[in-house]
């Protein structure tokens, strides 16, 4: 009996690897086209780091006319959560990161690893036939004893070399144990020597020297499904992956993964290990955590109403630091026109700054039309804020409100997320204005009689709802002058002792009286939308 007999006993009905090599031909792409993938496990909420990785993969493939695909690594079915796969694909769709190929589309599927069991067994059978893999019959107790003996001998723990109990078991003995019904797994017979180093060039990290792998890792589990390590090598080969972009927690696995490609006779893809997204914590830095940080979950941004474009723009910002300048120089261009360079990604973890993200979001939303703001905010409000949805039901009026200072050279930048919008625009709605309990802040002019005098004189003598903006502001200057305030701020600053204040102080009084806010977008536009009748009611 030989290795082929053993392989046929374990995998009697699988197709030969030649079959799979034929049905998954090399991709017909232009030279330099990158094929990359996002390969998540459906074991929890979608992490912002997964979105970050997907964005980089999508960017790299789109700018080289390559292929971005999503493969679901669901071989650890004990940890899989309900609707986990659907949530992953929905999150990518929500953030405009829809893959070129995934479940339901593409010629290199199935894109669920659990449906590729026969493929993995075919390659495992080939390794068994070549004596590069073997069945291991170790029980949990035996493995624990090996570990204890290694610790006593102060040797490395693991299943390797002389500690690999079933590594050199004769074929006939292995066949007998299998026919007797003993349970087993399939292990790689590692050709590695830890005293030797592999030289590897990571696309982001640069040159790395690491010891060769000598662990006889499990490649097929007792349920017949592969381990992640084995499955990913076969899938990346058959699916034509040329660049693996993944978190740098996988960096220690590089020697093993390159060894698997070598043993299987495949050309290895290039690897780019991304540093994790970090967060400041008590003066130090740590990884953004699903358990500790709500912003680690992609769902958080939807709940807060941060537009997908804002999230993507911020992630691109931390991926390539020169993106911020490019965006300032190209405010109207698509993010996908930015010449992204993966080699410029930082070797250490990018710091996640929620304040900066909201600042980016303000800039992003400032470029939206009133119609875009309305549509996105109304969709969000119908799911998350019933009161805001009711405020926005009058679309014609809402568009006027949302259109204030929009489309200008210096558009308003006061909206960072839809969850802030209700407060930001509430003074434009009479019932919210009347029921507001906000403290008034008139800033410089605080005397009540003076405030009433300013407002009364303005509406009795100067206000005309038909005035254009220049006439409107000149009348406020006239009002200022009549009451002993400077017409110009510069004039007041040059001779403050001559005036009670300046035109800006008068404007603030009118602003606060009419909106109960000292900071708002353009007051002229606000007054035009509210109209004479409602303004007079407010005073």
Features:
539 residues, mainly alpha, Rossmann fold, Arc Repressor Mutant, subunit A, two-stranded parallel ribbon, 24 helices, 9% strand
Put the structure in a nutshell.
The chain has helices spanning 3-10, 17-23, 48-62, 84-94, 117-129, 140-152, 171-179, 228-238, 254-264, 298-304, 308-319, 323-329, 354-366, 370-384, 386-391, 395-402, 421-425, 430-434, 448-462, 469-482, 489-494, 503-515, 523-530, 532-538, and strands spanning 35-38, 67-70, 133-136, 185-188, 197-202, 206-211, 218-220, 243-247, 270-274, 278-281, 284-287. The protein is mainly alpha-helical and 539 residues long.
Structural features, described:
There is one protein chain. With 539 residues, this protein is mostly helical. Among the domains are: 3-15 and 118-274, HUPs (Rossmann fold); 370-434, no CATH class; 448-538, Arc Repressor Mutant, subunit A. Helix content is 44%, strand content 9%. It contains 24 helices and 11 strands. It has helices spanning 3-10, 17-23, 48-62, 84-94, 117-129, 140-152, 171-179, 228-238, 254-264, 298-304, 308-319, 323-329, 354-366, 370-384, 386-391, 395-402, 421-425, 430-434, 448-462, 469-482, 489-494, 503-515, 523-530, 532-538, and strands spanning 35-38, 67-70, 133-136, 185-188, 197-202, 206-211, 218-220, 243-247, 270-274, 278-281, 284-287. Strands 3-4-7 form a 3-stranded antiparallel sheet. Strand 1, helix 3 and strand 2 form a beta-alpha-beta unit. It is elongated. The N and C termini lie far apart (100 Å). The mean pLDDT is 94.
């Amino acid at each position: 009996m030989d290795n082929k007999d053993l392989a046929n006993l374990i995998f009697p009905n699988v197709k030969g690897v030649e079959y799979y090599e034929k049905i998954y031909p090399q991709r017909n792409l232009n030279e330099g086209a990158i094929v990359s993938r996002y390969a998540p496990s459906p074991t929890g909420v979608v992490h912002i780091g997964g979105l970050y990785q997907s964005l980089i993969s999508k960017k790299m493939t789109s700018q080289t006319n390559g292929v971005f695909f999503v493969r679901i690594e669901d071989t650890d079915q004990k940890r899989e959560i309900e609707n986990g796969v659907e949530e992953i694909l929905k999150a990518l769709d929500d953030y405009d990161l829809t893959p070129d190929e995934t479940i339901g589309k593409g010629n290199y599927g199935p894109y669920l690893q659990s449906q590729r069991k026969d493929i993995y067994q075919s390659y495992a059978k080939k390794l068994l036939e070549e004596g590069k893999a073997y069945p291991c019959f170790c029980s949990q107790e035996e493995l624990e004893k090996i570990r204890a003996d290694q610790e006593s001998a102060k040797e490395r723990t693991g299943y390797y070399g002389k500690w690999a109990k079933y590594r050199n078991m004769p074929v006939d003995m292995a066949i007998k144990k299998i026919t007797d019904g003993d349970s087993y797994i399939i292990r790689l017979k590692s050709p590695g020597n830890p005293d030797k180093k592999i030289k590897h060039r990571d696309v982001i990290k640069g040159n790395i020297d690491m010891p060769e792998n000598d662990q006889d890792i499990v490649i097929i589990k007792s349920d017949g499904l592969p381990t992640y390590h084995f499955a990913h090598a076969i899938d990346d080969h058959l699916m034509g992956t040329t660049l693996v972009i993944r978190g740098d927690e996988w960096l220690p696995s590089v020697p093993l993964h390159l060894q698997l490609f070598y043993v299987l006779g495949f050309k290895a893809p290039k690897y780019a290990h991304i540093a994790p997204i970090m967060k400041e914590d008590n003066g130090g830095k740590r990884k953004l955590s699903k358990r500790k940080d709500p912003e680690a979950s992609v769902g958080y941004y939807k709940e807060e109403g941060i537009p997908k474009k804002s999230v993507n723009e911020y992630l691109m910002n931390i991926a390539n630091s020169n993106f911020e300048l490019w965006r300032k120089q190209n405010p109207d261009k698509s993010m996908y026109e930015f010449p992204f360079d993966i080699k410029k990604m930082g070797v250490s973890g990018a710091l996640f700054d929620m304040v900066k993200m909201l600042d980016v979001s303000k800039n992003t939303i400032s470029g939206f039309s009133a119609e875009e703001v309305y549509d996105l905010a109304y969709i969000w409000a119908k799911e998350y804020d019933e009161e805001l949805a009711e405020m926005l039901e009058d679309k014609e009026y809402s568009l006027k409100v949302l259109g204030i200072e929009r489309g200008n050279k210096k558009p308003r930048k006061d909206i960072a997320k839809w969850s802030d919008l209700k407060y930001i625009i509430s003074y434009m709605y009479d019932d919210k204005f009347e029921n507001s309990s906000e403290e008034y802040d008139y800033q410089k002019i605080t005397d009540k009689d003076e405030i009433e005098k300013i407002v009364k004189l303005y509406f009795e003598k100067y206000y005309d709802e038909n005035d254009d903006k220049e006439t409107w502001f000149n009348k406020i200057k006239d009002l200022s002058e009549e009451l002993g305030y400077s017409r110009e701020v510069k004039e007041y600053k040059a001779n403050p002792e001559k005036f009670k204040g300046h035109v800006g102080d008068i404007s603030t009084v009118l602003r606060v009286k009419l909106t109960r806010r000292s900071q708002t977008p353009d007051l002229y536009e606000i007054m035009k939308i509210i109209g004479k009748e409602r303004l007079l009611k407010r005073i």
